[in-house]
Amino acid sequence: MQRSIATVSLSGTLPEKLEAIAAAGFDGVEIFENDLLYYDGSPREIRQRCADLGLDITLFQPFRDFEGCRRDRLARNLDRAERKFDLMQELGTDLVLVCSNVAADALGDKQILVDDLGLLAERAGARNLRIGYEALAWGRHVNQWQQVWDIVREANHPALGMILDSFHTYSIKGDPSGIADVPGEKIFFVQMADAPILAMDVLEWSRHFRCFPGQGEFDLPAFLAPILKAGYRGPLSLEIFNDGFRAAPPRANAADGLRSLLYLEEKTRERLLQTAPAVAAEPDLLFAPPAADTYDGVEFLEFAVDDASGAKLGGWLEGLGFAKVGQHRSKNVSLLRQGDINLILNAEPYSFAHNFFESHGPSLCATAVRVKDSARALARAVGYHGQPYRGLVGPNERELAAVRAPDGSLIYLVDQGADGQTIYDTDFSLSGGVADNGLGLTRIDHMAMALPADGLDTWVLFYKSLLDFKADDEVVLPDPYGLVKSRALRSQCSSIRLPLNISENRNTAISHALSHYRGSGVHHIAFDCEDIFTAVKKAKEAGVALLDIPLNYYDDLAARFDFDDEFLSELAYYNVLYDRDANGGELFHVYTEPFEDRFFFEVIQRRNGYAGYGAANVAVRLAAMAKARSGGLRHAKL
Amino acid sequence: MQRSIATVSLSGTLPEKLEAIAAAGFDGVEIFENDLLYYDGSPREIRQRCADLGLDITLFQPFRDFEGCRRDRLARNLDRAERKFDLMQELGTDLVLVCSNVAADALGDKQILVDDLGLLAERAGARNLRIGYEALAWGRHVNQWQQVWDIVREANHPALGMILDSFHTYSIKGDPSGIADVPGEKIFFVQMADAPILAMDVLEWSRHFRCFPGQGEFDLPAFLAPILKAGYRGPLSLEIFNDGFRAAPPRANAADGLRSLLYLEEKTRERLLQTAPAVAAEPDLLFAPPAADTYDGVEFLEFAVDDASGAKLGGWLEGLGFAKVGQHRSKNVSLLRQGDINLILNAEPYSFAHNFFESHGPSLCATAVRVKDSARALARAVGYHGQPYRGLVGPNERELAAVRAPDGSLIYLVDQGADGQTIYDTDFSLSGGVADNGLGLTRIDHMAMALPADGLDTWVLFYKSLLDFKADDEVVLPDPYGLVKSRALRSQCSSIRLPLNISENRNTAISHALSHYRGSGVHHIAFDCEDIFTAVKKAKEAGVALLDIPLNYYDDLAARFDFDDEFLSELAYYNVLYDRDANGGELFHVYTEPFEDRFFFEVIQRRNGYAGYGAANVAVRLAAMAKARSGGLRHAKL
Question: Which fold would CATH assign to domain A3-280?
Answer without folding.
Answer: TIM Barrel (3.20.20)
